[in-house]
Amino acid sequence: MSTQLTIDEFARRTGTTARTVRAYLERGLLPPPRMIGRTGYYDASHVRRMSAIQRLQQEGFSLAGIRALLEAWGSGGTLAEIVGAEDALGAARTGAIDASELFPLTKFQRPADRAGHVLRQRCLARTTIAADRHVLMVAPGGSGKSTLAAQLSTAASGPSGWVSVEPRDDAPGQFWTAVLIGLRTAVPGLGDNLLAEIVIGGDVDRFLAALAEEVSEKQVGVTLVLDDLHEISRTETLNELAWFLDNVRPRDCRVVLCSRSVPAIGVSRLVASGRLIDLDTDELNFDREEARLLLVEQSGIHLSNVQVAQIGARTRWWAAGLYTAQLSLRTGTPPERLIASLPGSELRVQGHFAQELLGIVDPAHLDFLEDVSILDRFTADLCDAVRDRSDSETILAELQDNMFIVRLDAIGHWQRLHHSLATVLRARAGTSDQPRTRHRRAGYWFERHRHFPEAISHFVLAEAFDDAVRVLGVVYPRFLNISHQGDAVARWLAMLPDSLVAGSATLCLASAGVAGLRGERERMELWLSGVKLLGAETDSSDLTSVQSTVDFMWGCFHFGEVERALRAAMSGYAACPRNHPWFPMQGASVALLRCAVEGPTDEVLLLAEEVLAHPAITDQPIALVGMWALKGVVLAARGDPAAGAAVHHATLIREQCRIDRVAQAAHTWSSTARAHRLMGDVDAAAADAFTAYDHVSALTPERDATGAVTPALIELVHARRLQGREAEAREYLAIARRRLAAVTGPGLLPSLLDEAAGGL
């Protein structure tokens, strides 16, 4: 990116207008530009500031609130210390890849310290002694796992990161994207090249090996907390985590795991091998001294040592039970009555304290807590929207000392209920219509703030399926640039009634897109057939757009049948409106297929230039690189000296965007290899062809949805033959012919391969 941007260039780069830029300058939200003569120039720091402003607006901050945060930032603190946005934003972005919208910023923020928390010296001492091991804490909710993990990361000698694990992180791509962003909040710049790889859907095994190697090379001694790990149930993801714990030294990256159940990561083996220290419920429970600090010294209540011991014994020294006992004592309950009321049974203690808490909370506050219990996280504005009230900020201020509300950032903008309390309150709300109404209101709020995953989840829970489908229509066109999001969408689709999915062209298309991304040809074809059957029932105004998308999918996910794919892609592109989010990708698909079928013609060049001129192309880096590469191919075939500049531009963008190790991107390497070959630079052609093949060689013929492997092999055969390395050329030729025999009969690709063989 140029470091000197005029106001118009800056506005275009940040997706806003010059008028908005001027307004932000007047309000003090942006620092003044550097003046050269009468022209002001903006640099990368302005771009980062504008990105932070835009993301904070999505998080629900007003411009006045953002200005206050930025002023605090400028006065000595960092924005990360105040709200955590700066680190999380930077960690989620590299080159043209922006994963910040995939996750809420609070996901990567350690819960704020609370004055009433007891420092767990005993547990901290044990983990300090075992500093050369990863840490696992397994205990029920309310046992203080998150609090101890926060204290442990604070006490760590090196930087620390945090990831709050959610159910939608169960997919490997989603989980490891979150892990990498969590690490990058602590170690800026770590895995710059890996973020694009995992976000776009690269091979997880290769990603893990590269991440482990880079973490070891950095030697920064980072601590990473994975909170609520029990949300991960997929065996594949847990096996990958076990491998990571086995292959990353705690002195380089110490992983702290918090879970309500024992994760299937081979805990006994890791403990026996000295890789892991395991803290269970008994070790996490308070001891007598910690209970005394909480009940007596921090609350100012006079209790004898005997009474402290009685309360501790009858709460089973459970952290949440002791905190609730403290709250009960502070509200005036005599110690003797409190002790007498305790159940004394381990099976009943948690349920008792849930009911005890409900009995001592102000009724108005209890109503508020029940209303917002449907939310995994909330702001005052979101609470107002869900409750259809305007007093949430006041109530939250009154509840700020209540341990069952957890602040997710230092200023308390985002908060959540303690999981134990939320569970009780949700059960108390029952199955009435009110929770569904509140879920729907939450869905509208999250949609308005562009938190699409949370919006869809709330709409589904509200059984507001029409709204869920509407938001899915916004989200699913973005799959092709964020491949692992297909797993998230698949889960949303699974939550919808089968009859609704099968009866909606939009949902059938979304299901087909997921299947295509996964290389599941039969399922994709089944869903696209369903769209055809629905065509007669589709509103005529939407029919053209639906058919265009169907044709595009046939063109994109063709499994090597390029002639059929070209016919479909051309039909879809001709019918696609220019303002459709898939227009650049559709054009890129047609250009790539025409070049394969017809060769580097003038029509291919015109298509590439049309796509490159589209304003949305900058948001689709694979299409952007691909079109510059194809432009280079056509110009090289003509002998035009401008070909070198086009290929250089494609290579430069590919490096800046860190496009790597994904099937869709492999086509760009094959195209630059072809251009280099036509320009006579055989060694460069061989290098690019080998890179293309290396990135997709693990794909079986049946799973090669975009047909990326054969073009790479064709260019590799060309290059090795021209280099005089005929034995290798024959080897790659044999591989290519075996692949073609597995998926297609005689046609275009076999003839192109014969041409590459050149009589071998």
Structure description:
With 760 residues, the chain is mostly helical. It has five domains: 7-77, Orthogonal Bundle (Multidrug-efflux Transporter Regulator, Chain: A, Domain 2); 110-284, Rossmann fold; 288-342, no CATH class; 453-538; 558-757, Tetratricopeptide repeat domain (Serine Threonine Protein Phosphatase 5, Tetratricopeptide repeat, Alpha Horseshoe), CATH 1.25.40.10. 62% of the residues lie in helices and 6% in strands. It contains 41 helices and eleven strands. The strands form four sheets. Strands 6-7-8-5-9 form a five-stranded parallel sheet, sandwiched between helices. It has a two-stranded antiparallel sheet with strand order 1-2. The chain starts with 6 loop residues before the first helix and ends with a helix. The relative contact order is 0.06. The model is unreliable at 76-85 (pLDDT under 50).
Order of strands across the biggest sheet?
A: 6-7-8-5-9
The biggest sheet, with number of strands, parallel, antiparallel or mixed sense and barrel status, is: 5 strands, parallel
Evaluate the radius of gyration.
29 Å
Q: Residue share in helices?
A: 55-70%
Strand content: 5-15%
**SS element count, helices:** 41
Look at the structure and name the CATH superfamily of the largest domain: Tetratricopeptide repeat domain
The CATH architecture of the largest domain: Alpha Horseshoe
Q: Looking at CATH, which topology of the largest domain would you report?
A: Serine Threonine Protein Phosphatase 5, Tetratricopeptide repeat
**What's the end-to-end separation, in Å?**
46 Å
